[in-house]
Amino acid sequence: MRANPERLAWSVLLLSFGICVTLAIACPLAIQSFVNDSTAPVELALSVQQGTALVQRPNSTDFSRVTIERPREVLEGETILVDESTLGMLSVGDPRSDSALADVQLYANTGLTIRAAYTPRFENSPNPHRLNLFVTNGRIRVNVLSASGRPTAVLTQSPQGEVSFSTGTYVVEVTNTDLQVTVREGQAVVSAQGTSVVIEPSQRAVVVLGQPPQGGLSGERNLVADGNFARSDPGAWVTDHGPQDDSEPKGTVSYRNFAGRRAALFDRTGTSHAETRQVQEINRDITDAASVTLHFALFINTQDVPVCGSQGTECPVMVKINYRDTSNAEREWLQGFYAVNDPNNINRPVCDLCSRRFQHQRVPANAWYNFDSGNLIEALNVDPFKPTQITRLTIYAAGHSYRSAVTDVELLVQD
Questions:
Q1: pTM given for the model
Q2: Which domain holds residue 154?
């Protein structure tokens, strides 16, 4: 018989109370942790705008080919490779709402691995969508969207360092020796060797292998105002119309959310030629510019004239740069984009009425396409005269019936 049954009773009672309190605290915390930290994969789709991309599965030497005709779902852990003649687009989507979270433009000679791509499994979780990319080489442009109610956090790593950013637009370039990051919109944190720097819009950071980052460097000047058409009023852009039959309706331009992005939407239904334009006066000097680069994203939804018409002047998206050169002559550079091919090869992929002819580009229908011109200085040269001033930028749709959109317009000058 025990000498002190009261002590045993109190011990059992206190132990039971302790277990009860522990369970009362631990169970809700465990449930909260499960709700907050459980994840599900996001939707990753790779489309090719030209050429052929290769996708390699983890721990495998096998590759699958991705072409314009054969887009492909991509999984976490897979590696994407594009060669010198290929452009690819990685689209990231929310599986619950089908809204776009981000898109990653892959330029020529780029390789990246998707290290992580997930979203919280439960709506109550406060955590963001996450995308983690490892870029071995090449150049990517990351556009992190704000369409979803939950933020998206992107981490881009390379052998030199890493970059983290959220909503905005960023360019990341990786070579054998360095990592370069340029912020178009948003804010990026660049880290390496235990040191971090923050860079703001129009700034650049460089990380040399084995060294801490150098931030706050001068980036390119963007000569275009309101390139994502954020304003509801005309603002920097003016709507204009080209020659057409007065008995037919004119096209319209509206600033709105379209296919997951804020954009200028060109819309027209008719049976004869018309042009609907957005014009911005630039009037900026580029005499000593080392490079001039045009970038924008375009979307072709409807096109009834195959290619760009019989004279190459009716593309559903066209862009024209007016400029002066050292002879004070007025010149122009024109580029068109189309989605519908001409099986009879009658219509023209170049502008026959233009003084200088540049090949129009075919792009996928019903998908955003990022156009990056590369350095236009040589294209703008008319030997021996060099460009001195950009006077005007015009983006327009031409044809009979068309529905197309543009956004993220930038005319970047590096001195």
A1: 0.68
A2: 39-218
